[in-house]
Specification:
The protein is an alpha/beta fold and 318 residues long. Helices cover 30% and strands 23% of the residues.
Length: 318
């Protein structure tokens, strides 16, 4: 089944060239199916790029998915055309009376700033609180995961001595959890961040469980006891050349940056990067949609409550 996205969204042409099945609003309205309603809070500066990356992965599913796009009003994006925001994005005020099957909160390039000093922190906190009652399952990515762990549980982030930059091997800690169904024993995930969360802080919170980690990159995936919130510290959604773009940018600006690990053959930036994470990325997002959204969300979203959980389906203990 396709993803349903707004007519004329720039990502459509790119996805169709890649043979990703999309459906515009006009065609979707003719089908008598209730699609999953997903809200994307896009905090990344290059919003069109991030939209395309996530839609590419979420389109690889037998489920029909309907997207709404949201941005914060307390910060004016500088790298996305204003016309694009006006045409395709809404503010929190416009969506707060709706309910959603799922929500994605992206990362943001503000990780080295204290949370409370981020321009849109208060607005983001309001949105994260709202998601507990108006969204069935929320997937937090990179800084979005750190922000949610800090806001909901008081878990701090720590500066790294150097940027965690590259594609790193990971393992699954709890294999019966459906988020990692079908994963290999070792799978790869891109990381690009200056901060981390630590095991010792997470283990103090009984409501949380670490699902996956990496010897090199640290904690990767965390879930809450209700299986309603997922926290992912890496960037499985990255395109093949995203790390290259970041590396070339920093080199051009004269910033200190390591060659991304496990990315270029022989660590030679003149060569074409090797993609090691594509299959794991597709599994991650399709498993989230199927097992954590579709299998649990009520057909009538107006019946959604914050007490709903997936423990009956996937085991109460974490």
């Amino acid at each position: 089944m396709p993803i349903k996205i707004p007519n004329n969204l720039p990502a459509v042409n790119i996805l169709e060239k890649e043979n990703i099945f999309t459906m515009d609003e006009d065609r979707a309205y003719s089908q008598d199916i209730r699609p999953l309603r997903i809200l994307l809070l896009n905090l990344m500066p290059t919003k069109i790029v991030t939209e395309t990356q996530l839609l590419r992965l979420l389109g690889n599913s037998p489920l029909q998915v309907e997207f709404d796009f949201m941005y914060t009003t307390t910060y004016e994006p500088k790298n996305t055309p204003h016309e694009h925001l006006v045409k395709f994005y809404e503010t929190f005020g416009a969506v707060k009376n709706r309910k959603y099957d799922g929500m994605i909160i992206t990362g943001a390039p503000v990780e080295q700033i204290p949370f409370e000093e981020v321009d849109y922190w208060d607005e983001l906190c309001e949105i994260m609180d709202w998601s507990r009652t108006n969204v069935y399952s929320t997937l937090h990515i990179c800084w979005g995961a750190q922000a949610a762990l800090y806001h909901h549980y008081g878990i701090p982030k720590y500066d790294l001595p150097k940027k965690m930059f590259g594609v790193f091997p990971h393992t699954v800690n709890i294999k019966e959890k459906m988020l990692f169904r079908g994963f290999d024993d070792i799978f790869y995930v891109p990381h690009s961040r200056h901060t981390e969360v630590r095991r010792k802080d997470i283990e103090k919170v009984s409501e949380l469980c670490i699902l996956s980690e990496s010897e090199e990159a640290g904690i990767y995936a965390i879930t809450d006891k209700k299986h309603r919130d997922l926290f992912i510290t890496g960037h499985s959604e990255y395109d093949p050349l995203t790390l290259k773009t970041e590396y070339d940018r920093d080199v051009l600006q004269g910033l200190p940056i390591n060659i991304p690990a496990n990315y270029y053959p022989n660590d030679d930036p003149a060569q074409v990067p090797v993609v090691r994470w594509r299959s794991a990325a597709n599994l991650l997002f399709s498993n989230w949609l199927n097992y954590y959204v579709y299998q649990g969300t009520p057909f009538d979203l107006e019946k959604l409550t914050d007490s709903d959980d997936l423990s009956g389906l996937y085991g109460a203990g974490i």
